[in-house]
Amino acid sequence: MSKTAAIKKKLPIELSDVKKSDLVAQVQQLHKSLNYHSHRYYVLDDPEIPDVEYDKLFRQLESLEAQYPELISLDSPTQRVGGKVLENFQQVLHEMPMLSLSNAFSSDEIEDFSKRIGERLEHDDFELFAEPKLDGLAISLRYEKGILVQAATRGDGQTGEDVTSNVRTIKTIPLRLSGNDFPKILEVRGEIFMPKKGFEQLNQTQINNDEKTFANPRNAAAGSLRQLDSKIAASRPLDMFCYGIGIVEDENENHPIESTHSLILQQLKYWGLPICPEVKIVNNWQECIAYYDSILLKRSELPYEIDGVVYKVNSIAQQQIVGFISRAPRWAIAHKFPAEEAMTRLLNIDVQVGRTGALTPVGRLEPVFVGGVTVTNATLHNQSEIDRKGVRIGDMVIVRRAGDVIPEIVKPVLSKRPDKTQVFNMPEHCPICGSLAERINDEAKSRCTGGLYCPAQRKEAIKHFASRKAMDIDGLGDKLVEQMVDAEMIHDISDLFSLSAEQISNMERMGEKSADNLIKSIEASKSTTLPRFIYALGIREVGEATALALANHYQLLSKIQTAKAEDLQNVPDVGPIVAHNIETFFSQEHNDEVIKKLLSSSIHWPEILKKEKDELPLADRVIVLTGSLSEMTRNDAKARLIELGAKVSGSVSKKTDLVIAGDKAGSKLKKAEELDIEVMDEAGMLLLFKKYEL
Ligand code: 9MJ
After folding, report:
1. Does domain 103-280+306-325 correspond to CATH entry 3.30.470.30?
2. Domain spanning 341-416 has what CATH number?
3. SS3 364
4. What's the whole-model pTM score?
5. Catalytic, out of 20, 115, 133, 559
6. Which tens digit of pLDDT belongs to each residue from 658-677?
7. Does the active-site annotation cover 411?
8. Strand, coil or helix: what is 561?
9. Which of 53, 563, 593, 608 has the least CB density, counted as fewest CB within 10 Å?
């Protein structure tokens, strides 16, 4: 009996003809949409909608089919998983089907999963194995006598594509297994993915070559693996982690398989196959949730994309008892993270003006829940990005929010483009002050030329001036600055020093006490240091370290004000662009006036007594900086070290006195250890700076 006939026999509800025709039309529409999006995802590697949207449609169809089983047809997308195999590659029949995983989205579902296993085993004595769920492509590697002979994609689980020549180019996959105790035939299963860094670099290269960029690392990995020319695949930074085995055969029948999933992975590792380092044995569903939370916290730091974690029954014997449901094991489940991409409508594009006048287009969105929060704004970076993505006002767009990164608009969904959309062009004038907006020297962003005449730039300049590392005016928050500028209580930074407590206490939500406190902090900020004052002025590209270097080099503000670009380049770490920015800043009359006003409001700092070079605390010490720093940029750290008299070198040798090693320091740290050179971490360096604060 055919499946449909069997289903018809079970038909629970007789439908009226009208309702039935409505439902049939609805189901057909869902088939059409799902087939279209599945083709884009699996065959073209160019999905148009995020996975969540696809899942929503899929669940809608599943739910209709569950309610009215007579509507299930053999060609329903729910009866088939995966995409069509491309004709260009040889097809490979998987002797042992490649399984997919059931999904769970909540702790409750994980508790249920654990209960179901307990019921099947008839006891609760089982371990689970937890591993990250890599967002790549499932692959099967076939080793014969330890030699890689075939690599096939999962395809629809039964039939995949032969991508051996491309997989052979992946450096982490051994062409020959290590050791000699491997079975005659070994099928290894895992996920091929593109690490985040490689993905960024690949997209940059695509942009430079005027070629299409990839939407995400998964598409980039799929596109790379499906290259007919394996030289192109070889140039793509692919990687793999193994998470299971398929067929295992040996001369004397079956090779003894390890008794647990964790031992199998250890064995694979021993044979030289790459295994994800983040895996862990857990004892109950609560430990699963703790693992999920810890991996979610780490997610943005991991060098590869994951979209959840997977829990598997660890004992192979127990896996066999628990069994399978159609195409997925009952002994495993994927616990998915909240989606990082969602679809919503782009209602408008506003232009924001930054402190240095940079104009940034910001998309205003119909609120959408993505990455665990509701997002209403997303950056569009600049006009070139808008043009490249082809986004128009009114479009349905894909919004991405990964970790704590500012949400961004990835692309429009062209099949959903309404009749009336509006092409956006960056205004030629600043939307706030009306001054001309210019694109200087090939910069991606255009800038308002209004300088401190522009209220938006003034607000940002005042916020910067008051910030902690600048004049440190406690209690003067961003909102307050905006209100003060809007109410024309202040026009520039120097006006802060003539504010009265009465004026402040008349502002919204400001009582007498907070007004008094603010006046006190403004007063206290007058006693500052020259480096802080220079930094507070907000000269383009003059950060804390450059401000410190300038102060130390010239000692007097008046000397910096009159220095020419050529001379400024004698200051450590000041190059031609920064020198030009400094000279231009001080040559502008309105900046000169503001500085005069500031000084007349009795801002003061202790005189800097320049030490002779050999009196400096790190005089002639050869220091190497390596690894990444979290509290300051490497350039800023270098500038400070130079100010303290050190010679900062790029390579470790016998002449090196000290290596400062930040996070993920590599070969330089290793060399320092080999040469027995003193090593200091970032915290040590910060203490050193504090000790010798200039
Ligand atoms: C991924 N995608 O990382 C499985 N997977 O196990 C892991 N996928 C899997 N396991 C059985 N870690 C079928 C699929």
Report:
1. yes
2. 2.40.50.140
3. strand
4. 0.59
5. 133
6. 999 988 888 888 889 889 99
7. no
8. helix
9. 593
